[in-house]
Amino acid sequence: MINFFRKIRYRLAKNNQFFKYSRYAIGEIVLVVIGILIALQINSWNADRINNQEERRYLIRLTDEVRSELNYLKDLRDIFFDRSKGLNRIIEQWQSGNSVVEDTTQYLQDYSYGSGLDPWYREPITWTQLQQSGDLNLLKNKNLTDDLFVFYSEVNKLGDNFVLNPMKEFVNTREKLNVPLINDGGVIIIFKYVGALYVKKEKIQINKEIFNKIWNYREELLPSFVRVSGICQFQVVKLQEVIETGEVLLKKLEKSLINN
Length: 260
Hints:
single chain; 9 helices; rod-shaped
């Protein structure tokens, strides 16, 4: 066997074909390497194209979600502001010593504001999905990613703090404002009355005795209503701060969509 290879080597060397076949083999190897590199580059371009498309889809969804969240927070801010105004109206009347109710509709509405609001935080679907799926790296603009973390962290923190602190005061006040009315179903009547005004613009006759009971119980209710009003004012300030952060973020998202 060794002699066989020696003979082949001898003939190649004798005919100067060794270098010819070597150059041929090297050329084949180079072509194969070039083909592999081209294939890898094509795969890389294709992967980048797919990632860019996926990034744009996420940017569109995030932009819509942040815009929707901002509208929700603005409505919430306005609700807290209106409730603060209404609570201040009824507080001023109770403190004035004037028991005459000129606008019964407004009075009962302001009274119902003492019950406060339920937890308002809602989970952002797209932002949560982006983090849990591991696709966060698709967003090439890391400053934008940081801004998204800041905005949603602020929203989450404000929502959690609302549940931990204000909600307890709201629940306590809600129970107190039921006290002067619970025996004769006054609570049901008042909330049915206010709801009818909002939904059907209807009016329901309220017994004057209900207003008298509220007035006679005002000293018990007043401290709680003052605290609830303060909570509403605080929420307005904090929500406005978050809204301003979100509006800056929204502009950056819209700009990223244009450039993407």
